[in-house]
Write the structure tokens for this entry.
Amino acid sequence: MQGLSHAELAEKSRVNNKSLSRYELGSSIPPADALKNIADALGVSSDALLNDDTVAIKDKDLLKKFEAIQDMNEEDKALVTRFLDLTIRDFNARKAYK
């Protein structure tokens, strides 16, 4: 939960602690406004709360870019992936020598 206690999440999301517990246990389904407030408090999308295959990308601009890449054809995806691999390799190399 992003390092937040239930009480902190309840305060930050404006959803009471008892409701949060019911949502977490699956005994109750949060209304859309509560779901959005919880997601905003955690810094994730509402979809991330609903999906078991959560990917933690906190940078919303970066997330939008990755979503756009998903729509590309395989050739373009491969090109972007290759560029990312090279950039990450260079970043890790620079970090190792600092």
About this structure: The chain has a mean pLDDT of 86.
